[in-house]
Amino acid sequence: MAEVVLECRNITKHYGGVHALRGVSFKLHRNEVLGIVGDNGAGKSTLIKILRGAIHPTSGEIFLSGKRVSFQSPRDAVDCGIQCVYQDLALVDELSVKDNFFLGREVERRIFGFLPVLDEKTMRREVVYALGQIGYEDISISARTADLSGGQRQAVAIARAVFTKPEPTILLMDEPTSALSEKGKQKVFQFVSFLKERYSIILVTHDLNAALQACDRLIILKLGEIVFEGDAHNGLGVQELVSLM
Predict the structure, then answer these.
(1) Count of CA atoms in the C-beta half-sphere (13 A) of 207
(2) Contact between residue 47 and residue 37 where contact means Cβ atoms under 8 Å apart
(3) Phi, psi of 239 (to 5 degrees)
(4) What digits encode the pLDDT tens for the residues 85-137?
(5) How far apart are alpha carbons 72 and 51 in whole angstroms?
(6) Domain positions in the chain
(7) pTM confidence score
(8) What 3-state DSSP class applies to 151?
(9) Does the pLDDT of residue 218 top 90, yes or no?
(10) What architecture does CATH give domain 1-81+167-245?
């Protein structure tokens, strides 16, 4: 059995009288793609927000490689090696690909030993390299992000998440195939296959068919509880899984 890189134990989240998560426990193994599947209101978004440090659980524990952690902010999660590709991609349409890639983490150099200026050459080189690594070397890094296709925008968001410092060990992908064409979805599946060689991945989606294609194991959430956990390829049939959601 591969090393456990992340473990959640009895995670609960209450919003007043609403129970968004009810004692959710699971493990993520090294170089595994774990799908978390469920309809709207199942608790998927709440769980992903807890794992990236955006909100705090009401109770429960999170462990990274056996060490208990507590995230006070998304920055804490990033510092611990967790990066997220958001459902809305968190891209600024009017900025270029390069500027989106380095938004909030621009690379600087100093002239005359003290005056900071943007290191445009280094940033261009790093963006070209990152996009090339996931098979999108044809994207112009000076292109306006609003002018890209859905698949290209997804590529920029993924490249930004994984080619960063500190380098992540866990990648959270929130609805990565949402609003994509079938061709775009297949490209995302290729991304996932490539990325799992380097990272452990949690893929959150309402699309059961996408999860079955991309994931090694599945967890189905319903009303904040795990109602199924098992191998994505040797478990229940599609119709049986759908009936659980």
Answers:
(1) 18
(2) no
(3) -65, -35
(4) 876 667 888 889 988 888 877 667 788 777 887 778 888 888 898 888 877 88
(5) 11
(6) 1-81+167-245, 94-165
(7) 0.85
(8) helix
(9) yes
(10) 3-Layer(aba) Sandwich (3.40)
